[in-house]
Each structure stands twice: as structure tokens, then as C-alpha cells.
Amino acid sequence: MKKRVAIFISGGGSNMVRLVEDMADPNHPAEPVLVLANSADAGGLAKAAAMGVPVVSVDHRPFKGDRPAFEAALQAELDKVTPDILCLAGFMRVLTEGFVAPWEGRMLNIHPSLLPKYKGLHTHARALEAGDAEHGCTVHMVTPLLDDGPILGQARITVQTADTPDTLAARVLTQEHKLYPACLRRFAAGDTTRVDL
């Protein structure tokens, strides 16, 4: 029985696309059952629909900072499709412990730094400011602490002298597109062995 995967996005959904493309392999241990965005104009929704994945949007703005109410609306959509695994793929909303706790051990996230370095935003600029020789991305299990939790895999790149935050971001994103599918494939098969690219 394939694991059922729901994917949360906020924008263009390039990581979501790669996850869905990888799950199209008939031998993959998981299948996508929902792509959810926190804005109806998230570009990834149209991409997911074009690939045959059910989509829904739950706009966070009408909730006016009432995160528990917003998260209850998210959970109501998940309840309709009963996923086994939840993948955050560029979902730009911080989730509370009340939402995360029931999903702990079943929720994955990809973050554009070599955690535990640079939790939060502006990771590429921070890596350059620190003079780091290498940078990359991390797939981890989600816990109530921001960008925390057991690491399932990392991909590394060498920082070049001429790099800017934008060039670093582009090169890291290429690695994200390889790392996240590899980690999800193993995780859905019950293997939490770390993936390093």
C-alpha cells in the first residue's frame, strides 16, 4: 500500500513539482493526494492540477493572525484526504505546536541551509556574510521548534568568490530538487537513513 502524501506550498512549487514527478514512478512507495497553498494565486496550484493532483487553497489572510483557526482549516482539508505524510515545500507560514504535534514523525520540510546553521529566513545572505566555504540545503522531520528536528539528508555546494545571495539560491535550489525526492522516497519506504548529496 502506497503512503499518501499531502504537500503544502506558498509559491511556484518547484520542489512540489519534483516530488510529484518522482512519485509518478510506479515503483515509488508514495503517491500525492493533495497540494495545498495558503494563497489561491500560488503558482504551484496550477502546476499540480496539470499533473493530476487535487489542489486546494486556504488563505491565511482572513484569519487575521488567529493561527489556531487557520490551522484548523488546514487540518480540515487534510482530514478529507487522510494523508500519511505531510511535506512542507516552500510553505511560508510558521505552524504552531498544536498543529505540528499530531504530525510529528510524519511531517517533512526542506530548508535552504545546512542545519543547524541559519534557521529562519535570508539563509543565503547569512552564509555569505559569515564567509562560509560551503552552503546547501537540509531535509528534516518537523518538530514544534522552527527548522529543527531529525535530519534526513543534506546536499552541499561550494561557495564561490563571486557568489551573491541570488546565485547561491539558484544553485542550492538545484540541489533541493534532487535531495527532497530522494529523502521522501526513503522515508515513505520506512528508511530514515540519512541521504547526503
Automatic annotation (TrEMBL):
Which keywords has UniProt assigned to this entry? Purine biosynthesis, Transferase
Q: What does the record give as the active site?
A: 111
EC main group: transferase
Q: Which GO terms describe its biological process?
A: 'de novo' IMP biosynthetic process
Q: Where does (6R)-10-formyltetrahydrofolate bind?
A: 67, 109
Its pathway is: Purine metabolism; IMP biosynthesis via de novo pathway; N(2)-formyl-N(1)-(5-phospho-D-ribosyl)glycinamide from N(1)-(5-phospho-D-ribosyl)glycinamide (10-formyl THF route): step 1/1
Q: Which GO cellular component terms are attached? A: cytosol
Please indicate if the UniProt record lists Secreted as a keyword: no
Annotated Pfam families: Formyl_trans_N (PF00551)
The UniProt annotation places N(1)-(5-phospho-beta-D-ribosyl)glycinamide binding at: 13-15
According to UniProt, residues marked as the site described as Raises pKa of active site His are 147
- GO MF annotations in UniProt: phosphoribosylglycinamide formyltransferase activity
Where in the numbering of this chain does the Formyl transferase N-terminal domain appear?
A: 3-183
Q: What is its EC number?
A: 2.1.2.2
Q: State the reactions this protein catalyses.
A: N(1)-(5-phospho-beta-D-ribosyl)glycinamide + (6R)-10-formyltetrahydrofolate = N(2)-formyl-N(1)-(5-phospho-beta-D-ribosyl)glycinamide + (6S)-5,6,7,8-tetrahydrofolate + H(+)
Stored PANTHER family:
PHOSPHORIBOSYLGLYCINAMIDE FORMYLTRANSFERASE
The entry's function note states: Catalyzes the transfer of a formyl group from 10-formyltetrahydrofolate to 5-phospho-ribosyl-glycinamide (GAR), producing 5-phospho-ribosyl-N-formylglycinamide (FGAR) and tetrahydrofolate.
- Family per UniProt? Belongs to the GART family.
Q: State the protein's name.
A: Phosphoribosylglycinamide formyltransferase
**Originating species:** Shimia haliotis
